[in-house]
Design goal:
mainly beta, Immunoglobulin-like, 3 domains, five-stranded mixed beta sheet, 27 strands, 48% strand
């Protein structure tokens, strides 16, 4: 017993001998003093130190193991160095896929202590998911995405949106950095009409940037509607010396947006350039154009208008001469002779 410590004396005749008896407590099994997790980048070996305590007088050697799925990791995967009051573990070739639950086991002749831990081997994130481009117009569009399946074991910092202009030679250019705390959407407002673009997005954490995820389809910067088709059956139904009455049929296609008006264009029979003569509001199929020059031969054509602008012109009408069509007969009285 510990209470048996004392000085012991032996006598034999006149001879005396004494010694001090000290009874010490024997060693205990190790007790691990370590947290629940290890977080470290996977781009170089991961080293962590595990303190432990053994009370009493040391009597046996310490052994330590790092265990995964019930099996100790071999020396080719982990280096284990036992110190006086700690064990140093070094995972030689960490990888994101090796993250997970592990056990630290430290033992001596008196027993073993086990500590469950999670080792988080951090890497760059996986790419963002489900990139989509919507609300495409002449100068703008909206890019949307979802967070990556795996953030790499480290909180995401931001998303980087990149764009490629397919009309010019060149690579990708960053157009925005969206903080990871904000909604996963970005409104692009600097597109150029009729140009084609590609978009891709990267996720970023403290380790670095993910591989990009690319939106598969090129994006054409245009409104979701087109100009109307050309009107048909355009004809001049009446005319006079200073105006002409026209009628026509609606185009087969309104381009995806309601027709809001028509433009009457004209040119002189042997002229080269068509001139805008009159703009008519509303979805009508007839109008009068004024301001013609008497005696001049004209051709006419019609364009339909929607919010995309004027569409393709109709076929030209047959030419007419701006003059009075119907004149009352009259008798020129000069030089009349009586024939009776």
């Amino acid at each position: 017993e510990l209470t048996d410590s004392a000085e012991i004396m032996c006598k034999s005749g006149e001879l005396t001998s004494s010694c001090k008896l000290e009874v010490k407590k024997g060693e205990s099994k190790p007790v691990i003093d370590f947290g629940d997790s290890v977080d470290a980048p996977a781009n170089h070996p991961i080293t962590f130190h595990v303190p432990f305590k053994v009370t009493g007088t040391k009597q046996s050697q310490i052994e330590a193991k790092l265990v995964k799925d019930g099996k100790p990791l071999p020396l080719k995967e982990v280096e284990v160095v036992v110190h006086e009051e700690k064990v140093t573990f070094t995972v030689k070739k960490p990888a994101r896929g090796l993250s997970g639950k592990y056990q630290i086991k430290i033992s001596n002749a008196q027993g073993e202590d086990v500590k469950d831990i999670k080792i988080n081997m951090q890497d760059v994130p996986q790419p963002p998911q489900e990139i989509n481009v919507t609300d495409i117009f002449q100068t703008s569009c909206i890019v949307k995405w979802k967070p990556p399946v795996d953030d790499g074991g480290s909180t995401l910092i931001q998303y980087v949106i990149e764009r490629q202009d397919l009309s010019v030679k060149g690579g990708w250019h960053s157009i925005a950095e969206v903080p990871a705390t904000e909604p996963t959407t970005f409104n692009v407002t600097d597109l150029i009409h009729k140009k084609e673009y590609k978009f891709r997005i990267r996720a970023v954490n403290k380790i670095g940037s993910s591989e990009p995820n690319i939106f598969a389809k090129p994006v054409l910067a245009k409104d979701p509607w087109d100009e109307p088709g050309k009107p048909t059956n355009v004809e001049v139904v009446d005319w006079d010396k200073d105006h002409a009455d026209l009628k026509w049929s609606k185009p087969e296609s309104d381009g995806g947006a309601p027709i809001t008006g028509y433009v009457i264009e004209y040119k002189e029979k042997f002229g080269k350039d068509w001139v805008e003569g009159k703009v008519i509001d509303g979805d009508v199929t007839g109008a009068t154009i004024d301001g013609l020059k008497e005696g001049t031969q004209y051709e006419f054509r019609i364009r339909a208008i929607n919010k995309a602008g004027p569409g393709e012109p109709s076929d030209a009408t047959k030419p007419i001469i701006a003059k009075c069509r119907f004149v009352k007969p009259f008798i020129i009285g000069d030089d009349l002779q009586n024939i009776v």
